[in-house]
Write a structure and sequence with these properties.
about 120 residues; alpha+beta; 4-stranded antiparallel beta sheet; 4 strands; about 40% helix
Length: about 120
């Protein structure tokens, strides 16, 4: 097990994914063989992603000046499953996850319902 945190490891993992995808797209774009994958296009369309999920996000602006704040409500066809509160002041930004028992969560659910029926 690595002693580094995910924040410390993420750039290396991202670079690895980029390098692999670059090699696949290079083979597709140049109509050449790939070292590891016999059909890169088929692999990308059918095998590379473990799953494909549709995520919807409602951005509810509360203020736009300096400082500004907003709520992002992540939802699917059934319910709101995550709410984040964002606060920014010029070149500084912070966000926190809102708890389900918060009034902000309730408000976000109400705004998502308006979106569903508009």
């Amino acid at each position: 097990m690595s002693e580094q945190t995910c924040s410390q490891r993420i750039n290396d993992h991202l670079a690895g994914r980029e390098e692999f995808l670059d090699s696949l797209y290079d083979a597709i774009d140049n109509n050449t063989e790939h070292d590891e994958i016999s059909d890169p296009a088929d692999f990308l369309n059918c095998e590379f992603a473990l799953d494909l999920e549709k995520m919807m996000v409602a951005k509810i602006l509360l203020s736009t000046g300096g400082p500004g704040d907003w709520i992002e409500a992540f939802y699917d066809e059934e319910c709101v499953y995550r709410v984040e509160y964002h606060f920014n002041d010029w070149f500084d930004h912070a966000k926190v996850t809102v708890s389900e028992d918060s009034s902000l969560w309730r408000y976000a659910e109400e705004m998502v319902e308006i979106l569903r029926y508009s």
